[in-house]
């Protein structure tokens, strides 16, 4: 629509108009603090991260291993209460090269978010994390990766207890 | 298309001031499993549509609809979250069935009020951002303004408001779900510093965590599935204008209109002749009185006297909030309307334990979305 107009009548606003107080505006900083109870399943998952391992859940009806664990299977709606310890290795299901940060800054070296299907979990069950120690050009779907953990005394029971996942070759530790 | 709609299953989890050991998802699941077992339905196989009520600002998660399917058994099924009270959710389910889009609908509401560390600040975001919020007042001031004008116009006394607190918290002593049961005197109900005079701190319901799930069915399905369906005879809802500056603080015309909408569907002309008991919003004690009047149970200015005389006690003419109401059970945020409806269902089924009312046939549930809103809903039910 805008390309039909040659001229735009009206008064354009500039950043300076705000700074100089020429415009009536109201600045507000939202105070929204939450302390979400993580619950049984996610709580156990985070506690395991602090200990340095991955925890999944097993649905006996669907015969499926999922990560993170949950108290109910979303597909058969049966309770899920058996936990399984999983390897911290997996395969890249999909990834992206992000050149804009979360607070909208341009960056030259891209961030590498990826979904990693964890070994031992059923297909399409994985962890959403970032990749590291890898040239962005070398990242590919199907790439084998392993978790790089924070030192034990720095872990706090959070998804960031894993720093990132890095590529590895089978047989390497 | 189904003319008749019934509640055939109810489930709940909670209610408690805090609930650090469960996530909101796990509590929704607990309430849902109970409701499905109660109704004898399998959500994966039988349920056509799911409705949840939640406010993104309260949850701390945008587009909250995304986080509800798994724990309700609603994955790959029609599901949506509405920004409304639990009774608005019930009304949405009612419409889905009345229009013939669905035969079996699940309605969910929950509160994790304890997880919102800055609840007053979040509530302030309901104020007009240009005209009211810059004044920097705690949103409770709206209740103070409304109560003051209501007392002024009707001659209702502080003691009559305090009588609501005493009654509802005493009722809660007989409700195992209610965390705020207490045996208070009138004087004790008026103790302590006012929040926003003339509103005293014990006249405000404290928050609680909990979850409630209900299963709604078309008449045909209800007859097959349930041996004690609770029929929804009528549902109404209404909003007034938001302006604080030009508000009628005394007569709540939006509640009156919501009630009339429900009464009309139910064929009710004189509510106090037909309705045996009511579960109504008592977020603040004076609101129970205002709501009683707006619902047409008595004339404006009479509710305080009726309460004082004991007419709304469990053994009175019109028992009100036998459950304990929000003052006794806790304010469950947008699940509060479902808590009111749940008590109506339990009473009509004869499953209310030691607080069971005798010979009740028709019950009413009413909700209000709290300050600063003029948003309410009404449901009339029968067994
Ligand atoms: Zn399963």
Describe the structure.
The complex is a heterodimer of chains A (173) and B (383). The longest helix of chain A has 13 residues, at 39-51. Chain A has one domain (39-167). Helices cover 10% and strands 31% of the residues of chain A. Chain A has helices at residues 15-19, 39-51; strands spanning 54-59, 64-66, 82-86, 89-95, 98-100, 106-111, 113-118, 126-130, 144-149, 162-167. Chain A is elongated and about 65 Å long. The model of chain A has no long low-confidence stretch (mean pLDDT 92). Chain A has two helices and ten strands. Chain A has a five-stranded antiparallel beta sheet, with no helix packed on it. With 173 residues, chain A is mainly beta. Chain B is of the alpha/beta class. Chain B has a domain at 5-117 and 207-225: 3-Layer(aba) Sandwich (Peroxisomal Thiolase, Chain A, domain 1), CATH 3.40.47.10. Chain B has 15 helices and eleven strands. In chain B, the strands form two sheets. In chain B, strands 3-2-4-7-1-8-11-10-9 form a nine-stranded mixed beta sheet. In chain B, strands 5-6 form a two-stranded antiparallel ribbon. Chain A binds chain B through residues 26, 28, 30-43, 70-72, 74-77, 79, and chain B through 19-26, 29, 33, 42-44, 57, 60, 69-71, 73, 75, 112, 114-118, 121-122, 125, 129-130, 133-134. Bound molecules: zinc ion (ZN). Zinc ion binds at residues 59, 61-62, 73, 75-76, 78 of chain A.
* Biggest sheet descriptor of chain B: 9 strands, mixed
CATH evolutionary superfamily of one domain in chain B: Thiolase/Chalcone synthase
Spatial order of the strands forming the largest sheet of chain B:
3-2-4-7-1-8-11-10-9
What number of structural domains do the residues of chain A give? Answer: 1
User: Treating each run of at least 4 consecutive H or I residues as one helix, how many helices of chain A?
Assistant: 2
Mean pLDDT of chain A: 92
CATH topology name of one domain in chain B: Peroxisomal Thiolase, Chain A, domain 1
Distance between the termini of chain B: 21 Å
Tally of contiguous helical segments of chain B: 15
Shape of chain A: elongated
CATH class membership of one domain in chain B:
Alpha Beta
Major sheet details of chain A: 5 strands, antiparallel
Q: Name the shape of chain B in a single word.
A: globular
- E-strand count of chain A: 10
Tell me the span between the first and last alpha carbons of chain A.
Answer: 60 Å
Using the CA coordinates, give the radius of gyration of chain B.
Answer: 19 Å
Q: Percent of residues of chain B in helical segments?
A: 25-40%
The most extensive contact between chains is:
A-B, 24 and 33 residues
Name the beta content range of chain B.
Answer: 15-25%
| Quaternary structure | heterodimer
């Amino acid at each position: 629509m805008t390309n039909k107009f040659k001229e735009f009548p009206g008064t354009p606003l500039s950043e300076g108009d705000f700074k100089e107080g020429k415009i009536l505006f109201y600045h507000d900083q939202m105070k929204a603090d939450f302390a979400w109870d993580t619950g049984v399943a996610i709580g156990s998952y985070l506690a395991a991260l602090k200990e340095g391992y991955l925890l999944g859940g097993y649905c006996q009806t669907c015969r499926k291993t999922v990560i993170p664990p949950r108290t109910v299977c979303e597909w058969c709606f049966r309770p899920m209460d058996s936990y399984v310890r999983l390897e911290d290795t997996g395969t890249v299901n999909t990834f992206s090269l992000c050149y804009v940060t979360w607070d909208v800054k341009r960056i030259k070296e891209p961030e590498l978010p990826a979904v990693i299907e964890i070994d031992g979990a059923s297909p399409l069950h994985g962890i959403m994390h970032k990749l590291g120690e890898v040239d962005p050009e070398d990242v590919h779907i199907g790439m084998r990766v392993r978790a790089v953990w924070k030192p034990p005394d720095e872990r706090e029971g959070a998804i960031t207890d894993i720093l990132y996942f890095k590529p590895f070759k089978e047989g390497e530790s | 298309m189904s003319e008749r709609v019934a509640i055939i299953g109810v489930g709940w989890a909670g209610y408690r001031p805090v609930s650090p050991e469960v996530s909101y998802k796990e509590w929704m699941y607990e309430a849902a499993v109970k409701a499905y077992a109660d109704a004898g339905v399998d959500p994966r196989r039988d349920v056509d549509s799911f409705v949840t009520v939640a406010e993104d600002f309260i949850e701390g998660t945008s587009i909250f609809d995304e986080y509800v399917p798994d724990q309700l058994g609603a994955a790959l099924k029609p599901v949506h979250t509405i920004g409304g009270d639990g009774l608005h959710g019930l009304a949405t389910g009612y419409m889905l069935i009345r229009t013939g889009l669905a035969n079996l609908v699940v309605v969910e509401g929950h509160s994790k009020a304890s997880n919102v560390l800055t609840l007053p600040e979040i509530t302030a975001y309901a104020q007009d951002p240009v005209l009211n919020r810059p004044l920097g007042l705690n949103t409770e001031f709206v209740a103070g303004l409304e109560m003051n004008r209501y007392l002024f116009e009707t001659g209702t006394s502080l003691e009559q408001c305090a009588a609501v607190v005493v009654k509802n918290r005493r009722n809660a002593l007989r409700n195992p779900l209610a965390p705020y049961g207490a045996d208070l005197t009138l004087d004790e109900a008026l103790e302590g510093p006012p929040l926003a005079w003339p509103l005293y701190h014990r006249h405000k319901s404290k928050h609680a965590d909990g979850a409630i799930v209900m299963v709604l069915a078309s008449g045909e399905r209800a007859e097959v599935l349930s041996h004690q369906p609770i029929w929804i005879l009528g549902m109404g809802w209404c909003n007034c204008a938001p302006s604080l500056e030009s508000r009628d603080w005394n007569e709540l015309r939006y509640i009156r209109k919501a009630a009339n909408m429900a009464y009309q569907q139910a064929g009710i002309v004189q509510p106090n002749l037909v309705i045996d008991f009511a579960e109504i919003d008592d977020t603040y004690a004076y609101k129970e009185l205002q709501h009683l009047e707006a619902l047409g149970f008595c004339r404006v200015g009479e509710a305080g006297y009726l309460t004082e005389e004991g007419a709304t006690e469990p053994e009175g003419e019109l028992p009100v909030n036998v459950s304990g109401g929000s003052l006794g059970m806790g304010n469950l945020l947008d699940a509060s309307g479902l808590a009111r409806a749940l008590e109506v269902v339990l009473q009509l089924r004869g499953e209310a334990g030691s607080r069971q009312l005798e010979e009740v046939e028709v019950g009413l549930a009413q909700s209000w979305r709290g300050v600063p809103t003029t948003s309410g809903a009404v449901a009339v039910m029968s067994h």
